Amino acid sequence: MADDPGTGRSAAGPVAGEGASPPSLGFSPGEEGGRPRTPEGRETGRRSSGDTPSPTPPAVETEVMTINIGPHHPATHGVLRLVVDLEGEVVREVRPLVGYVHTGIEKSCEQHSYWKVIPFVERMDYVSYFFQMEAFCGAVERLVGLEIPPRARYLRTIFLELCRIHSHLVWLGTTALDLGAVSMLWYCFRERDRVLDLFEMATGQRMHTRYFQVGGVIEDVPPGFEAKTREFVAEMPVRVKQYQALLDRNEVFLSRTKGTGIVSRERLLELGVTGPLLRAAGEPWDLRKAFDYLVYPELDFKVPVGTVGDNYDRYRVRVAEMVESTRIVEQALDALPDGPHIADNRKYVLPPRSELSTSMESLIHHFKLVTEGYRVDPGEVYYSIESPRGELGCFVLADGSSKPARVHFRDASFVNLQAFREMSVGGYVADMIASLGMLDPILGGVDR
Amino acid sequence: MRERQLRARDMLRGDLEGEELERYVEQRVVMTNFEKLLDWARANSMFPLTFGLACCAIEAPIALVGSPRYDLARFGAEVLRASPRQADFIILSGRVSIKMAPIIRRLYDQMLEPKWAISMGACSSSGGMFANYAVVQGADKFMPIDLHIPGCPPRPEAVMYGFNKLQRKIMGSPDQGWRQRYNASGTEEWARGGVRSAPSPEAAAAYEEARGLIRA
Amino acid sequence: MPDAPGLELIRGEIEQDHPGAVLDTSFDRDQPALVVDSAQILAVLAWLRDAPGQGYGFLSSLHVADYLPAQPRFGVHYELLNRDRVERVRVKAMLRDPVASAAGPVAGEGASPPSLGFSPEEEDGRPRTSAGRETGRRSSGDTPSPTPPAEGDATLPEIDSCAELFPTAEFQEREAYDFFGILFRGHPDLTRILLPDDYVGWPLRRDFPVGGEPVTFTYNERRYG
After folding, report:
1. In a domain, B166, yes or no
2. Tens of pLDDT along A164-176?
3. B97–A72: do the CB atoms touch at under 8 Å?
4. CB-CB contact of B95 with B131 (8 Å)
5. What percent of chain C has pLDDT over 90?
């Protein structure tokens, strides 16, 4: 594993020759006395109790070892397979191989009418399911030219931000688990269960709620919802402070995340990376502020931006986003207007069930919408929103029939995964695991 | 409570005799045969494999085994084992894509006997809503599954209920559910080979044996 | 978004530098789109990115849609974003399918479109891919790297790869190749990304069957059928 000082880098892999003292190894092998030195030149290494200098270590044959991490691995956040070329503990090359949970959702979407597509697309990125619903419903609403009522916009915003909190909690729990802070998993999932309780109260399901429909939301929120959400929202910043107290100045966490996984802002933009990764590198780009959609223009919230772009900044950005999301939910609850929760256009929206027994047209509309579905004039639309991982875009191509001809999701995790190579190459394996956690890939979104 | 303490004291002193001693022993000592003891031990100390595929993975193992509210550890699944060699059962949580199927099979093969497999959710039980080219329509197609849990995703309580059923199956009294109530045995699908297929002789024998266990 | 007149201005300016590149413009549902000749796609993308005053330097998404039965059949979409002015523009390049569709409406792509991905009737129970190759036996280190398709393979529609201009397109072009069989000339590593490496067929083409299998009710069939 250690490099022989004599033959040095000759047996090393292709990415050799880094100059005088390659800090990636931690010591420079070209030292004549054979004693390891840190990059600053200070001598390290064991000394014998006398003062005889240790002899030159025997020649060690080195080679680059290719190992396979995953797809079944406790730390891969899903079924991600990494083929890593290691020289000792230093990562020389990493190739992410994906596709192990490819579900053909986009193909299945072409076989179902528009409202039946909603449960399919929900299951792509399976921790931020409301975002996929919003992207798809938003795209179809633009295709069809449907305006959604204000109450529906506010409700959608509330659920989107609750889902963002949910996603960041899952991220924090699993990433801290990977880095060794096992109790964070328990704390984050305790809060996550409270978010899921809210979802269950409003929609009946914990995950994959099919709550957003084209035109609004499928049902209004029940009477205790606002009170319970306010309770949650009041408690959440306190909990976040507790998480920060555990991790922010934790020695182990800091040394694992500070200074690791740095990619420059320009490179990230070239690679198409968006979301907290880009914001941690110093670029204040957030689609909620850039493109006004739903009620974000009317709400007052900040977008946390980092400075260096290392893993620690990514952690801080996401944790700060959780707090901002609670503020958004609170403001949206305060401003929640009364009114219908779904648009009134019976050509696209199911009539309320109470009318079915009295009105013949409602019955016919219901029948047509449920069996065949509404037809959408030919056209194509690309609509993107800010999901917890970055830009989530939905492209819908309509061909005049009641089924979409093509549904494509530009998933944030898929594009962000391209940055993973740059984050890990040149660092240690352990830093690669930290970078993988901070990258926050959700393989359902990557593979679709 | 006090009475029990007094009797225990008497027992330790050697003062209990005859019928009292009989009753004391009966209340405290379980007589069984070794297999049943073994099955009971196995059922109550099953370590799951850390394995998550898709959405169901967020509900279990993470929300179920690794969450304070729904705690599977109280049923014996104390730790998640990352290595298949050390795990007792695998929960297939999520859709099984065609690229992942051989890997799951290899993981299952690496597990040591006795091992069980739970297919959690609709996607791994039958392909779920994804009836397309990319999803294996049911994990039964390539590995034996002991328990199917419906739901998309199933609630953690549903998975716990399923886990309890698996425990009862391990302890020798499998719960046949509605097939027993409605006397509907023989309606299982042997879909692996198509419409006109029949189960392989070993499978048929195992099935007959299981049926005999229930009827008896 | 640049509005309709703005779109025409852009078209005019591109015409000056690269005549004949822009075939059509459309402004549908408030989304501007330029239909571009696929041979000059790199020139147009570079112009949109670099020309002063344009600055569409962020490629949001690269995806393909199959417009069958309309011809030309494949539309490669480039969603470009100007982050300073917060404007999007879509560039479409239409490609024909070189394999003449005279072979029949639901041709089946030559090789059998696999519905399961492996055949369950295998005796020893080891799953096989649709191409018959055994899976599950490869050791972790020696996964054979799949060979990218030969360029000039006349059965696949071709277009230049923009991975040099926009590095974000690397994975997205691989996905387009994987799903539709579009060959991107000059791509550093054009191999399948989401489907198994030895998968045969281009699943998201509209004439590829969706797959899956019918649910059987063998008890009833055996007893009554």
Report:
1. yes
2. 999 999 999 989 9
3. no
4. no
5. 19
